[in-house]
Specification:
alpha+beta
Length: about 350
């Protein structure tokens, strides 16, 4: 019996591969969401964000069986009678190693501003350009996404939160993208990578007026233009784009968490800035409550101090923007040490 059992389990490793890959992948995804959301909340309250990488996961399995046969006299008849003994044990020993993100790794992953190429290559691959711009762009062609975020408890009357024209530009770029009238070209020259923007040159259709508005706001004419990093363009066929780091993105998102009035009155958190335009919603809406939200209502939820902060699972716009934020974080980590990527090792043995 035991020979058959152990023989049937000799390929136990492949049996658990699919399950472990999915389970650990799901666990890593949830952990990343929670760490990111918690850091956004920490920044809102003037706390220190902390990043911890999962360096390695070792899930070790052992299936062990034993068996034996002994012969002894029957107490009634006195004749020798065989008796069998045996057992099976299963052991699962997951081991995980973590490391804090500090120093050069922190700079390369979270402090380094993204390049225009890193942002626009995602738009070229179908991610919504208005969400990307609101998360990653500080200014483009002189139009400000968010200027001075409030750093004191003074009146909000002087608070600059951005240019209304920036958000109108984002909406028009989204229209062009959806209509197939916006494209990008990426090249690698001797002086580094370059990215070029093209807007469909058409005189008819609803997109014509939108394309004209976008060119006017960007200060460009027909034809292809290069998108360069910085506040100011250096030529007539360039558009200047000042991008954010991942820390900058989280700081911008955190500023619009609608914290309780008591926390503002007690100077635990700064007041929430006003929107740049009437009816403009934050790119990611983070809700707060005194009790933990039900899992089916929260796409991500974390406790902080005596409250819960969460993203509503029915708020697709916030979920989509938060997903984009996480993808941008992973993209930013591409500029750092790639040896820090998590490694999953699953040794499985049968004895």
């Amino acid at each position: 019996m035991f020979v058959v059992l152990l023989g049937g389990c000799s390929s136990y490793g492949p049996l658990v591969l699919d399950r472990d890959r999915v389970d650990y992948g799901q666990a890593l995804s949830e952990s990343t969401k929670q760490q990111t959301l918690l850091n956004i909340v920490r920044i809102r309250y003037g706390d220190i964000p902390t990043f911890v990488n999962v360096d390695q996961i070792v899930s070790s399995y052992q299936l062990q069986g034993s068996g034996g046969v002994s012969v002894g006299p029957n107490p009634v008849t006195g004749f020798p009678v065989p008796s069998e003994t045996g057992g099976v044990s299963f052991t699962d020993r997951p081991t995980m190693t973590f490391s804090p993100v500090t120093g050069a790794l922190l700079e390369g992953s979270f402090v380094r501003p993204l390049s225009p190429r890193e942002v626009l290559i995602l738009a070229e691959n179908g991610m919504w350009i208005d969400v990307l711009f609101r998360l990653t762009v500080q200014s483009v062609a002189g139009l400000v996404n968010a200027g001075r975020l409030q750093t004191s408890f003074t009146s909000q009357d002087d608070l600059q939160v951005g240019s209304p024209e920036f958000f109108a530009l984002c909406a028009d770029l989204r229209t062009l993208q959806e209509g197939g009238a916006l494209s990008f070209r990426f090249t690698n020259g001797k002086d580094g990578p370059h990215v070029f923007l093209s807007i469909l040159n058409t005189r008819v259709g609803a997109l014509a007026a939108v394309a004209a508005r976008v060119r006017d706001r960007l200060g460009i004419g027909p034809g292809e233009v290069e998108v360069v990093y910085g506040r100011d363009a250096h030529g007539p066929h360039q558009v200047a784009m000042l991008t954010r780091s991942f820390i900058g993105m989280m700081t911008s998102v955190s500023a619009f968490i609608d914290v309780p009035d008591a926390d503002v009155e007690e100077h635990r958190a700064l007041p929430t800035p006003r929107n740049a335009t009437v009816g403009e919603r934050p790119v990611v809406i983070v809700r707060t409550s005194t009790s933990r939200p039900q899992s089916r209502y929260a796409a991500a939820a974390v406790p902080y101090r005596d409250r819960w902060f969460w993203i509503d699972d029915t708020d697709f716009e916030s979920k989509d923007a938060f997903r984009t934020l996480l993808l941008l974080m992973q993209l930013g980590e591409g500029g750092a040490d790639r040896t820090k990527a998590a490694v999953l090792t699953i040794p499985a043995s049968v004895q």
